[in-house]
Every structure is written in structure tokens, then in C-alpha cells.
């Protein structure tokens, strides 16, 4: 490996600077495939940053497919033949932040849908169907449907009959709405994505209306799993044009504090 790295300047996010420096070494071949990276402690000393910053930088490199952790051994540069993800660092950060929020949604909304199927009333079903129609109306009118999508999922939460769940969703609203903006912007670019979302919403509503808790949980979990897959399939052009900009508040919120 080349000479120790120099200290960073505070003008940009430190973890991105560390990741960029390490990526440059890897892509230039100065850190060879299958070579072990220095330990967190050594890298923190060389870059003059905290180990938390180094840890996040390594996470970014993992997202790019450039390194891999081996339990009890360390972090190694990926062997030849493994294709890195085709995202630069800002794109990888945006993608990762959105996917993390969708993972939170999957945990929450699976439970919410199951309870809604157990407790829904006829008024709840009417409200849920009206909210789903609101999404279609918004899209038909040329809007992104984000607000309507959030209201749809909130109507399901209301049917669950647990005010603490609604309070939790309201508390997380800024992040959930931010992630929804990204996922819907991506889905709007492809007819098959948009059609899949509509179908998945219908599956959730049908299970709730039928009073089938297991099916409702499964449909909600599958909806979020598919949302993750659709984000994973988003092309770099999407991130250049919309994704990274829309995800920026999520990226900023996910940045750890460095002391």
C-alpha cells in the first residue's frame, strides 16, 4: 500500500473524503484485490478522524462493492470478477439512506397492515379505498402522488386502531415522506414499476378488507421488499436527475455526529 494518508479538510463530509481517498487507491491498483485494508484505528490515525468516520467510509465502499468484511479477520478489497455497483459516492449515500428508511417502513407497515385486517371497520375500508383512489387521481392530474401515498398508508394505520402507531408514523413522517418522494419518482419513470405499485396496494387492501391478518402482513412486507428492489434497479440517470436531490435530506439526517 502507498504512503500514509494525509489529514482531511473540514470543507466536505469527512466520511465521503475518506471513502473517496480509499476508492482512488483501490481503482488505481495501489491497493490490490484481496489485500487487507489497515485497521480502523490505523486509518483513523492516518486521516486524523474518528473511528466512526472511518466505519462509515468503509460502509460506503461496501455499498460500491469495492470491499468486503471477513469476521474476525478484517476488511479486504474485493477479488477480481466481482462487479461493483455502478454508483458514485453521493449516489451510493442517497441510495443507502432511502433503502434504510424503506426497511423501517417494512417493519412498521407489516405490523400495521396485520392489525388493520383484524380491527378494520366498514368506515376504515371506505377511507382506505378513497385514499388509494386519491393516488390514482393525483397521478392522472400530473402530480407525483407522494402526499396521497402517505395518506393511503396512514389510513391503514388508522384502521389498526393503535394511537401509538399513528404517533410513531407521524413522528417519522418527514423521513417516510422523503423516501416516498424518491421511490415514487423512480417508479414513475417505468410503467412496469408504476403498475406493480398499484397492484401491490390492491393486494394490501384486499387482504385488509377480507379480514386476513396473515395475508395483509405478507402483502405489506412484499410491497416494501419490492420497493427496495425497485430502488436497487434504479439507473444512474435517475440519481443524476432526481434521486440524489430528493434523497439529500435523508442523507443529511443519517450523517453521524463527529466529535
What would your notes on this structure say?
With 259 residues, the protein is mainly alpha-helical. The protein has two domains: 14-77, Winged helix-like DNA-binding domain superfamily/Winged helix DNA-binding domain (Arc Repressor Mutant, subunit A); 89-254, Up-down Bundle (Four Helix Bundle (Hemerythrin (Met), subunit A)). The protein has helices spanning 14-27, 40-47, 51-63, 89-119, 122-140, 146-160, 163-171, 173-188, 191-209, 213-232, 236-254, and strands at residues 67-70, 74-77. It has a two-stranded antiparallel sheet with strand order 1-2. Strand 1 (67-70) and strand 2 (74-77) form a beta hairpin. The longest helix is centred in the middle third of the chain and has 31 residues, at 89-119. 37% of the residues are buried.
Amino acid at each position: 500500500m502507498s504512503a500514509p494518508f494525509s489529514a482531511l479538510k473540514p470543507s466536505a463530509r469527512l466520511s465521503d473524503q475518506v471513502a473517496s481517498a480509499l476508492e482512488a487507491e483501490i481503482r488505481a491498483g495501489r491497493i490490490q484485490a484481496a489485500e487487507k485494508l489497515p485497521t480502523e484505528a490505523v486509518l483513523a490515525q492516518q486521516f486524523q478522524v474518528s473511528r466512526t468516520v472511518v466505519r462509515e467510509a468503509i460502509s460506503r465502499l461496501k455499498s460500491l462493492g469495492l470491499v468486503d468484511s471477513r469476521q474476525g479477520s478484517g476488511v479486504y478489497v474485493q477479488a477480481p470478477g466481482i462487479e461493483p455497483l455502478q454508483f458514485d459516492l453521493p449516489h451510493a449515500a442517497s441510495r443507502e439512506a432511502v433503502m434504510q428508511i424503506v426497511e423501517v417502513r417494512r417493519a412498521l407497515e407489516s405490523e400495521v397492515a396485520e392489525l388493520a385486517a383484524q380491527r378494520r371497520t366498514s368506515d376504515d375500508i371506505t377511507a382506505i379505498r378513497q385514499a388509494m383512489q386519491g393516488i390514482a387521481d393525483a397521478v392522472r392530474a400530473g402530480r407525483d402522488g407522494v402526499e396521497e401515498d402517505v395518506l393511503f398508508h396512514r389510513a391503514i394505520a388508522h384502521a389498526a386502531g393503535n394511537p401509538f402507531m399513528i404517533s410513531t408514523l407521524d413522528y417519522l413522517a418527514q423521513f417516510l415522506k422523503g423516501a416516498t418522494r424518491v421511490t415514487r419518482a423512480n417508479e414513475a419513470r417505468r410503467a412496469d414499476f408504476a403498475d406493480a405499485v398499484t397492484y401491490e396496494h390492491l393486494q394490501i387492501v384486499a387482504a385488509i378488507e377480507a379480514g386476513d391478518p396473515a395475508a395483509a402482513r405478507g402483502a405489506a412486507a412484499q410491497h416494501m421488499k419490492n420497493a427496495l428492489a425497485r430502488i436497487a434497479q434504479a439507473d444512474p440517470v435517475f440519481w443524476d436527475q432526481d434521486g440524489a436531490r430528493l434523497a439529500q435530506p435523508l442523507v443529511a439526517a443519517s450523517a453521524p455526529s463527529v466529535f
